[in-house]
Amino acid sequence: MTTTKLYGGNEAGGKKIVCSITSGPDQIVQEIRFSTTTPEDTLRRAIQFFEPFVANRQINSIGIGCFGPLDLNPKSATYGFITATPKPHWSNVDVRGTLQRKLNVTIGFDSDVNVAALGEYTWGASRGYDPSLYLTIGTGIGGGYLINGKSLIGLLNLEMGHIRIPHNRELDPFHGSCPFHDDCFEGLASGPAIEKRLGVTGVIVPESDAFWDIEAEYIASALMNYILTLSPKKIILGGGVMQREFLFPKIRRKVLELLNGYVSSKSVLENIDQYIVPPGLGNQS
Amino acid sequence: MTTTKLYGGNEAGGKKIVCSITSGPDQIVQEIRFSTTTPEDTLRRAIQFFEPFVANRQINSIGIGCFGPLDLNPKSATYGFITATPKPHWSNVDVRGTLQRKLNVTIGFDSDVNVAALGEYTWGASRGYDPSLYLTIGTGIGGGYLINGKSLIGLLNLEMGHIRIPHNRELDPFHGSCPFHDDCFEGLASGPAIEKRLGVTGVIVPESDAFWDIEAEYIASALMNYILTLSPKKIILGGGVMQREFLFPKIRRKVLELLNGYVSSKSVLENIDQYIVPPGLGNQS
After folding, report:
1. Which of A20, A150, B145, B239 is the most buried (most CB within 10 A)?
2. Complex ipTM
């Protein structure tokens, strides 16, 4: 019998589910991945995976990072539910409660991006930096903001990917892809927005394409707003779009240009290479 | 000798200073107001006002709400200083330390807008609402955000008045008045921006003027960004521009229109009249 402390992890995405037993950031003891289908089928498979570890008392808690929108208010009657989502079958599903009742262990429940932010704060690039911001730019755009080591929960789950930013329609006539807000940040700069605008996935758009300067400006505009509003000590940019690493220097340069000296912090003005960074855990966060 | 607990308050604005001794939000025991001149002269007058109350042990703490930008990091060597400001003579002035050394009392030091936010949270419109946001729209635009009853301090003092928002130049060709960012929120919607654009102070622009719809949209855009990023449970709008009370319904309507149903909170969707409100303490906060 092992004496290493083990953790149960459940990363519930809109496309796939990853259930894992780990003893640290790089030590995966066991892991399964499967497609997200109906809630009944999907949650049943997750429960089956964890059951033996619970029965053998190898784990007594499971952390769930779930796609949203979520009810994260512990005082709410629908705490731990996925709320209204465009994804068929998944509106008003009690993800947390279902696992809790079947497995009878402590369940940590948060949004996928908050869990990624916490992973980076515990083991990765934002370790020791409080408050910190983790932003994922991929299929959607979402932010996890940690203060005093905890994710900020206010009136509602943060949806900072949907903020309004300047959109120069002469330079970029694209209408925007957000079904709610057209040309909000996500509607202009997410993976699907890039694909809809250019007709091809961003993965194959060459680094020399002038579009990337426009993309970098959108991301820099949003970062400027987050810096002035949330004042994070570290900003991590993850997600599929940020796999194009040449974007980092473009974004950093543009953030400095937009702020125009209006912050007196050396972390920003002189060490921006260490201020806006990729995830320390790669795809593991 | 009075047994009522008294508080020392020092509101240090760029134009005038108010020093007061109070026993509560509406109970001003004594108060003086004078113009902000040089740091030496101004701080000396404040110290002279408080000295007798300290000597008689009537107060043992003073709260200072100061104009910025400020160093609010207690671990910093220049904590309590005004940092780089365009206001002549006031860059790198040790406001907190000067009063601390001369009066030898506990000094609470924060930005003017954070102190206003705290006043509203203690006695006013945001009492019981955590997190909460206080926004002042006047000579400048500034925000105070309280979480767990304290103002958010991260890397730097929040400067959320300078966020980037959409600017439709066909509808509003005004270039913007911010010396750092041209058409940031403050550059588009502050009192001086209104006056520079219209040639007259906003105080005398009639309610029927079409400009107020543009103004309301700028404010609503910024509020949408703050809601999605900070998730406050109450938003208070103060400052000179918000004295034009007809702006409130315009702003609330526009916030709902921009969010377009994208938040699942009844506080926002159904009770916006109670969500975005004027200060409970009027000019006292």
Report:
1. B145
2. 0.87
pLDDT lower than 50: segments of chain B: 1-3
Identify which of A71, A138, A179 has the alpha carbon closest to the alpha carbon of residue A285. A138
Strand partners, B33: B18
Provide the mean pLDDT of chain A: 90
pLDDT tens for each residue of A66-81: 987 788 888 889 999 9
Could you give the percent of chain A with pLDDT greater than 90? 59
CA A158 to mean position of chain CA atoms: 11
The single residue listed with the structure tokens 């091809």 is A200
Residue from A91, A155, A257 to probe the interface with B (highest B Cβ count within 10 Å): A155
Better pLDDT: A63 or B173? B173
Question: Considering CB atoms only, which of A159, A165, A229 is closest to B160?
Answer: A229
Cα B124 from Cα B119, distance rounded (Å)? 7
Distance between CA A152 and CA A73 in Å, rounded? 11
Chain A touched by B186 (CB under 8 Å):
no
* Choice between B24 and A82, residue whose per-residue pLDDT is larger: A82
Phi-psi region of B104 (alpha: psi -120 to 50; beta: other; left: phi over 0): left
Non-local CB neighbours of B83 within 8 Å, separated by 6+ positions: A264, B68, B69, B70, B71, B91, B92
Instruction: Using the structure block, give the residue that is written with the tokens 């990624």.
Output: A116
Residue A55: band (very low, low, confident or very high) from pLDDT cuts 50, 70, 90: very high
In chain A, residues 7-26 whose CB comes closer than 8 Å to chain B: none
Instruction: Tabulate helix, strand, coil % of chain B (nearest 5).
Output: 35, 20, 40
Among A50, A66, A58, A37, residue whose Cα is nearest residue A99: A50
Residue A2: predicted pLDDT: 38
The tokens for B239 are 């400052």
pTM of the model: 0.87
Contacts of A262 in chain B (CB under 8 A): 159, 162, 180-181
- Spatial neighbors of A3 by CB under 8 A, at least 6 apart, are none
Taking only the tens place, the pLDDT of each residue in B20-42 is 888 876 788 888 998 889 999 99
Question: Inter-chain contact A166–B163, Cβ cutoff 8 Å?
Answer: no
Q: Do B229 and A160 lie within an 8 Å CB cutoff?
A: yes
**Residues 84-103, chain B: which have Cβ within 8 Å of A?**
84
Left if phi > 0, otherwise alpha if psi is -120 to 50, otherwise beta: which for A147?
Answer: beta
Cis peptide leading into residue B131 (ω within 30°): yes
Question: Are B169 and A166 within 8 A, CB to CB?
Answer: no
